[in-house]
Amino acid sequence: MKKALFWMVLIIILAFIGYRGYKAYQKTQIKEVFVEDMTKPVEIQVVKTTTFTKFLNFTGDIKGIEEIDVFPKVSGKLVEIKTEEGDRVNKDQVLALVDRDIAGMKFELSEVTSPVEGIVGLVFFDVGAGVSPPSPSPQMGTPIFRIVNMDKVKVVINVIEKELLKIKVNQSAEIKVDAYPDKTFSGKVSLVSPVVDPQTRTAKTEITISNPQHLLKPGMFAEVEIVEKVKKDAILVPSYTILEKGDQKIAFVIEQKKAFSKSVETGDFGSDLIEIKSGLAQGETLVVAGQHRLNHGDSVRIIGGIE
Q1: Who has the most CB within 10 Å: 22, 221, 233, 259?
Q2: DSSP state, 26?
Q3: pTM for this structure?
């Protein structure tokens, strides 16, 4: 009887100790979960320097570096065309013949010759058409051909007044056309008109492009990016990482698993990047996700990003 009572008491004591231990373990787990929940999840990126190029964007039309309309020397009927669109022609090459016969008179056929070397870009008339020279003005004549120099082409753009001072001759430019979506052509600003059109408040500007393979054709639509400035060792960060609080712009950086806000001065914008002129240094750990939930000094846990 005494032995049975002993074992019963021992079992009760052990059960009590086990219960107390389990409750203590539960409290520890709850405390750990609570501490874990107090930290805020963030994604990060290490601040680095890079070369930043700022562009001015325009659209325009491609033209031959030279485009010359060829007129007949006399009025008459176009009786023969000796070339066609796309042909390369030499200076003084005969392109067509015009019959200037007048009732009761007989003349030799008049030759229409090319004034320059180039490519026949357009043939305006067919055989049998009546043509005339540019007299007393080109508006009165009938051009038969357009000769273009395609070894170089130019893009003609219109620049608004406020951007005129940002563009100078010899500035670099990048050009894209729909025909070659994966190719970028390089050019240079060759002309900035000194005159602003009072109707459009724009000035004509030309970018010259080397075109040895004749990939670029007169009449193509072009997208142009003129290099405004290039900055080396610039700090660029995603624009969405910068928060505005009152008159301040701030970013959050991580030090020893804590978030600290830093006032920053921003500069130029890229497509989705912004330049940091002061406030961040190369090598700092920038918060790129989760920053909207942070306060200065918050504990954080890193859940993603590039360290």
Answers
A1: 259
A2: H
A3: 0.64
Alpha carbon distance 184, 163 (integer Å)? 23
Rounded Cα gap, residues 121 and 65, in angstroms: 12
Give tens-digit pLDDT for 185-216: 999 999 999 999 999 999 999 999 999 999 99
Q: How far is CA 170 from CA 173, 191, 192, 236, in A?
A: 9, 9, 10, 27
* In the chain, where the domains are located: 40-52+232-306, 56-62+151-230, 72-143
Fold of 40-52+232-306: 2.40.420
The phi and psi torsions of 240 (rounded to 5 degrees) equal -75, -10
Per-residue pLDDT of 75-132, as tens digits, reads 999 999 999 998 999 999 999 999 987 766 778 899 999 999 889 989 999 999 999 9
DSSP code of 199? T
Residues 39, 42, 48, 52, CA torsion sign? negative
| CB neighbours of residue 127 within 10 Å | 11
CATH code for the domain defined by 56-62+151-230:
2.40.30.170
